[in-house]
Design a protein that fits this description.
Blueprint: E1 15-18, H1 39-44, E2 49-52, H2 54-57, H3 62-71, E3 77-81, H4 84-89, H5 96-104, E4 114-120, H6 129-138, H7 143-150, E5 173-176, H8 185-194, E6 197-201, H9 208-216, E7 224-227, E8 234-236
Parallel strand pairs: 1-2, 2-3, 3-4, 4-5, 5-6, 6-7
Antiparallel strand pairs: 1-8, 7-8
Length: 246
């Protein structure tokens, strides 16, 4: 009896940059005289993905997300860096209201261009399975869930929030760890259980090789986001940015 044909997964590999407003790039990557307002458009015509970094430092505005959406080609994906208020100040604890504010700040105006969220942890934060478990359970996994969460925002975004999704689409998340205590099989099991990708920055933690070996033992693991220290190039694992479902 002939074996049934295997279904092959296809993936869309995207190479992009982390942010796009860097003065040293002007006249080097960007042509001399290019207006700053046109830098995202220029970059998006040469890369198929860009990470929004401003969302890490402060809540952005719906009009900004709409402008970024309009400045980029149809087949474009934005990665979004999670708020440092959540990751560094709250250290993932009591995160429901801050997450609501984050998702109410206009992210859903990126529509089909909204890609994965990168949650970068501070170097001093040690592995805490219970803390991570609670945080992962709060993360919305589709845009309708994100809109529902956004509607629970507080006064910090009152008057300018955006809490509507134009369609229901899957949302994906990646975790960037920076303390060597995360080199443990419990982390891999936790990430697999919640289908969270692992972000790895070159040189960010000791034992990164061992961490990669642990993840390699999990064939169904969702993938890696590899970030170059120079902040000029992001090499994306084919299952992170590309897959429309994680």
């Amino acid at each position: 009896m002939a074996r049934p044909a295997r279904t092959r997964r296809t993936a869309d590999v995207r190479i992009g940059i982390s942010g796009w407003r860097y003065p040293p790039w002007r006249g080097v990557f960007y042509p001399p005289g290019l207006p700053q307002a046109h830098e995202l458009r220029w970059a998006s015509e040469r890369f198929r993905s860009v990470e929004i970094n401003g969302s890490f430092y402060s809540l952005q505005r719906p009009d900004s997300y709409q402008a970024w959406y309009e400045a980029t080609p149809d087949d474009f994906i934005f990665a979004v860096k999670g708020s440092r208020f959540i990751s560094h100040m709250k250290r993932l604890a009591d995160a429901e209201r801050p997450l609501a504010n984050f998702f109410a700040s206009g992210l859903l105006r990126l529509r089909e261009k909204l890609g994965p969220f990168l949650w970068q942890l501070p170097p001093s934060l040690r592995f805490d399975e219970a803390r991570l478990e609670s945080f992962f359970r709060l993360l919305p996994r589709d845009t309708l869930s994100a809109a529902s969460l956004a509607r629970r925002h507080d006064h910090r975004v009152a008057g300018w929030s955006w809490t509507r999704a134009d369609a229901n689409r899957p949302l994906r998340h990646a975790l960037e760890v920076r303390h060597e205590s995360f080199v443990c099989p419990e982390l891999v099991a936790l990430l697999r259980r919640h289908r969270i990708a692992l972000g790895k920055t070159n040189g960010a933690i000791h034992g990164a090789v061992e961490l990669g070996l642990l993840a390699d033992r999990s064939p169904s693991f969702s993938g890696f986001l590899l970030i170059n220290d120079s902040s000029i190039q992001v090499r994306i694992n084919c299952e992170l940015l590309a897959r429309q479902c994680i």
